[in-house]
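From the shared-data thread, chain only:
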Amino acid sequence: MKNRHTGFLTSLLCLVAFLGSAASAARPSPAAGQAPSISLKSDLTIGVEDGDENLMFGEIIRIDIDGKGNIYVLDYKFRKIAVFEKDGKLLRTIAVPEGQGPREATDLNGIAVTPDGTLFVNDMRKVIVYGPDGQYVRTFLVDFTISSIGCPGTEDLVAIGPHGGKILHVFDQAGKLLASFGDTFTPPAEYEPMKEMLMCGAPLLFNCAKDGRIFVLNPHKYEVSVFKNRRLERVLQGKSELFKPFQKMGRGFVSTAAHIVPSGEFVFVCFRNPDPKAKKTADVFQSGKQVGTIDVPGKPYVADSLGRIYFAEEEGFPRVVRYAVVKN
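Structure, as tokens:
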């Protein structure tokens, strides 16, 4: 188990280093860089620089919402999940200690929340489950590596990771594997033997919309597969100099990761960049076509039923900011 975790983290560090260097050297092409006629207007901020420790964050790596609009924030540095009402009032905090026990996590790298408020915590080879009241329910094991999880508006869990020729896997709340779908992405011939490897057969990250759609970036070309009801619905084709295909670099492998969030008629694709000084942008798709690129204030994670997008911002201090998408 430990060796698998160490290998994953090494690959992830290679990914981060690659993205940082790529983003600082590249700029979107003129065609993709046109600004669409939309803007972002903030209406809620959660987080403070000092004062109430319950409202201070160390490193926000995931945001999700339930059917009531409650906001769940995963803080990797402070190893906690903070839950807020839709107006920003703190409801509870769930601590996730480091370790290998049932309520502990070695690789605390993701959360997912169902409409009813069941909370899943991803530890790559196991999932910790909390009820809507925030109480621990169970922990179940997974016999393959899952790098990211989500809930597409259902009470089941969806996880991503190449396994048995498929990349997306549906689990019920007890941990039973219900279905697998989505073929592993086809790599260039030189990487064909590695298609069951993280970052090659499937990306590290994916996004679930609350309307049932699932968005997955092809590691080998700028294409976003959109699934619904466990079927491929469409493929969005984009163009950006920030996208780099899966490739060998030094002793490791690297691959571009992205946060993909829909809002109304738009889909935002924000390539992940850990450099806080780098300019953050998102490609915008409308009606299946790439229509431009806009500046964004941070990393987008999820949109609510009104299309408001929840960003993790880092400048100054970590915080969650909710933005409405406004047509100009």
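The first strand starts at residue 38 and ends at 46.
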